[in-house]
Fold:
Amino acid sequence: MQDQLVVPDEALAPDHIDGPLHIVAPDVAYVRCGIVNVVLCGFRLAGPNAWMLIDAGVPGFVPAIHRAASKRFSPGEVHPERAPRPFAILLTHGHFDHVGMLTTLAAQWNVPILAHEDERPFLTGDQSYEPPDPLVGGLMALTSPLLPRGPINVRERLQILASGSRSDRGPVPGMPDWEWIHTPGHTPGHISLWREGDRTLLAGDAVVTTRQEALIDVIWPRAEVHGPPMYFTPDWESAKRSVQLLASLRPELLVTGHGRPLRGPIMREALLRLADDFDEIAVPKRKLAQQRSSRAAQTPRAASNQPSAAQATPAPEAARA
Structure:
């Protein structure tokens, strides 16, 4: 397993650390919950129903989320469990490391859960995710068969995001100026969040900024622009199209589900290179060989379905007479 697109420290987004919070924009902060980032969107002292929790991390971090919400959105010292509740919990997708606290937090706050239509079966107890691939390299990947694949059932609180004028994106309830963008590949209903005004991209796991397959990089993240986590990404063609779409936005600030936020031209250049050379950089070599073999096998079959030159050429007028 090799690094993808390592970037220098100057590409790291400046962040202000306030207790458990890493504040990267006036209304964007995140909490690192073990192996994953949980994002809190909303201005300081916003109060109840005026901020959004994006993803719900792994189990065991409920007190940390309460402390972060209390510190960020309460006007004074309050008990962490009395922190202002969010407008909703918005899921980029339903993998175990993004829903670990979901049922607990949604029940404590009595708030809805927002997700894309294509993520519904994984959130209503109807379907599990595909098995991970432990052979892509790295200790995290090797142990991935031990990780839960769901499904979970939050049917009673689940609300499906509505699309706008385009079916692949739409407005985000409770988050003015933001839109969700369908970025499948890592999961069928994966979404990213985009704000055009300041070009802020919350990418979820469509692209990440660390080598998530390697335990050492999970513990001590080193900045790099990286495709979605290899071991839990089943649809690489869709993943490529999603990365190409996100790169075309040319973001100024990139916050992802794993790794440290990046910003500026170095990040954009790396993201564009990832999009241009996605197969060679991001796709596991074994998967890439399988894709190429499949394409090669389909080519003769497609050709055999084409009419021969004799069949395709109309008969001369004299012959038809």
Notes: The longest strand covers residues 28-33. The mean pLDDT is 89.
